[in-house]
Amino acid sequence: MAFPIILDCDPGHDDALAIMLAAADPRLNLLAITTVAGNQTLDKTTLNARRVCTIAGITGVPVAAGYDRPLVGELHVADDIHGSTGLDGPAFGEPTVPLADEHAVALMRRLLLAHPEPVTLVPTGPLTNVAVLLRDHPEVRPKVREIVLMGGSTERGNVTPYAEFNIAVDPEAADLVLRSGLPVTVVGLNVTHQALVTPDVVARFRALGTPLADACVELMTFFASAYERVFGLPDPPLHDPVAIARVIDPSLVECVDVPVVVELTGTHTRGATVVDLHHKTGLAPNARVAVRLRAAPFWDLVVDAVSRLSGSPTAGSPG
């Protein structure tokens, strides 16, 4: 049986691979792709989602745009990592996959209420859309199986010393999601940095010998150059697909149940995820936090997904 999911994302190089993995793996039923401002502005992340679906042959999956700014404050994008388009590297043509004439939150609400079984939400960008959905439409809560998000860290951050980008862009939204009372799994930097795009990984994509695989090589090459320039890391971590992998096969991503809160007011720590690994606060656990990735089978999963899409122009369409 395929697990129904909605992918809420801000493409982004790693989001692009997350879209491909979510669409291609037969254990998932990708109901929709919704977009949010994050790695780039909303118009660019939405265009990028449509571009990825077009080159990967993903049809029949609605793409809807959500919020163009965080709940509080101004939007700060990651153009130093993802470039001026948010998906620098390959030369994309005009997308043929259309944009749904519906706001992302309205689409998520409609799909959740209509689906016969609970649906997993997988946000891989700032949590604005998901937070508004849960805040303004409490009737959907029984229809949410779980939320598996990419964001935060048990250690240090990547946009400030202690804040990971997705949480830092909209800390108030992350706080709402983590206090929602729903099952939440947090896939943070501490585990996604175990999914490194090494030269051997790039060679596996190149060996597929398809236009889509070649585009993945270009994406990862640009991503690697940005990570080396900004962080001094030649092998970039492919963050977002790790959250998808956790839904496909939980044994790939080991988790622990712990309390997690988001720092909202710290002068130097706003947006930090305070993960109580040693249960010092006395708070009840409110999240499963990823701590370890089985990297080899994870990469098998991602490469196989690109191979599946490369071989079928309609792969990823709901059946």
From TrEMBL:
Any one Gene Ontology molecular-function term assigned to this protein's record = purine nucleosidase activity
Swiss-Prot/TrEMBL keywords: Glycosidase, Hydrolase
**Does the entry feature the keyword Hydrolase, yes or no?**
yes
Q: Which InterPro entries match?
A: Inosine/uridine_hydrolase_dom, IUNH, Ribo_hydro-like
Question: What domain of life does the native source organism fall in?
Answer: Bacteria
Domain Inosine/uridine-preferring nucleoside hydrolase, residue spans: 5-300
Q: Which GO terms describe its cellular component?
A: cytosol
Q: Which GO terms describe its biological process?
A: purine nucleoside catabolic process
- The answer to whether UniProt assigns keyword Hydrolase to this entry is yes
**Record's signal peptide:** none
Matches recorded under CDD domains: nuc_hydro_IU_UC_XIUA
Q: Protein name, please?
A: Pyrimidine-specific ribonucleoside hydrolase RihA
Name of the gene this protein is made from: rihA
